Amino acid sequence: FHSFSSASLSSSLSVDDHGLQKQIDELSSFSDTPAPSVTRVLYTEKDVLARRYIKNLMGLSGLSVREDAVGNIFGRWDGSEPELAAVATGSHIDAIPFSGKYDGVVGVLGAIEAINVLKRSGFKPKRSLEVISFTSEEPTRFGISCLGSRLLTGSKALAEALKNTFDSQNVSFVEAARSAGYAKDQDDLSSVFLKNGSYSAFLELHIEQGPILEAEGLSIGIVTAIAAPASIKVDFEGNGGHAGAVLMPNRNDAGLAAAELALAVEKHVLESGSIDTVGTVGILDLHPGAINSIPSKSHLEIDTRDIDEERRNGVIEKIKQSAITIAKNRGVKLSEFNIINQDPPALSDKSVIEAMEAASKELNLTHKLMISRAYHDSLFMARISPMGMLFIPCYRGYSHKPEEYASIEDIANGVKVLALTLSKLSLS
Ligand code: HGY
Ligand code: MN
Ligand code: MN
Ligand code: MN
User: Fold this and answer.
1) MF terms per GO, please (predicted)?
2) Contacts of 41 (CB under 8 A, 6+ apart)
3) Does residue 202 line the site of ligand 1, with CB under 6 A?
4) N or C: which end of the chain has fewer CB within 10 A?
């Protein structure tokens, strides 16, 4: 019944390149900013259109589709032994403002195409195969990264916090979810939690979002670990005032406090002793935001990561000390220093890595082991199932900007390795 040897299967895998490219292009049209940029934020009208698009494709692939209370979308292909834990694969389709059309999308459309590839080859799964499109991997709307996968993997704290979480327009999470047709009859989001052991493995196909594979001319990256992300929200408050009338000695400028803290982030990161420590201030708002008014309030959001969790936590501590010192020296109030998330890194599962290496070899694709400096839903799925990630090269490593690009050849390679790995794990 399972007569397929992987070797024969690998030679019969064919990807519908044109169809996949067309889907990537069509999906990118659901955007709140003009092409070539993509902006697709959680529960907005464009997000709902994209979700409908994905559910339709899952249906066309013969997958049975379900959604949970926050809109994680699951497409399932029942195996011959459906009572066994399924093998899952997926990624996200939300996109940060003015970003590209491959981040996340390659791992959702590619996963659906991997199912099609296996069906075309006549493969019959033993363990069911499940494609997942996670709700809101990006932190854009509510400041929470990997919201869907955090919940799926049982974050009680998040289920609680979401009851009074608001976006920048003061729309609550539940109201936003309901506007998109989710969180209908329950305000108890623990229904989203997946039972441990729901999956025997979870895989994610993603663009590298770094320059290594392209620079080394390699086709496939096999991820061994995902760096430890953290994010912090900071507010300073001062008296503000007239830009002409208030002399310098009498000022307590909340804007300069924020600027000084941003430079302190860079200093502490550079002094960490490792190139693997990174820090970014991607949001810095000044109030009232008038050229001739001394900022009375400032809001900045800090993203800092490292493959070494302790070293990252040390940097967070130093950033906090700097915020307190800067506030004191400038006579401003540090009205908020809120660590939103401070997550550990995740390690890929050895047997999943081996299955990916074997699949890459059988497909004669060059590959290497590497770490992921970007976080992914896999960071959380690793908490409830053996995890593995596949990278494909992307143009100069560009990501989170409109110039993001991956060739359909590289995407097709990734889809084939994903399909072959899924087949191996399904028969295991
Ligand atoms: O920011 C990240 O690492 C991910 O791409 N959202
Ligand atoms: Mn991203
Ligand atoms: Mn991503
Ligand atoms: Mn290539």
Assistant:
1) hydrolase activity, acting on carbon-nitrogen (but not peptide) bonds, in linear amidines; metal ion binding; ureidoglycolate hydrolase activity
2) 32, 47, 94, 95, 97, 138, 140, 141
3) no
4) N
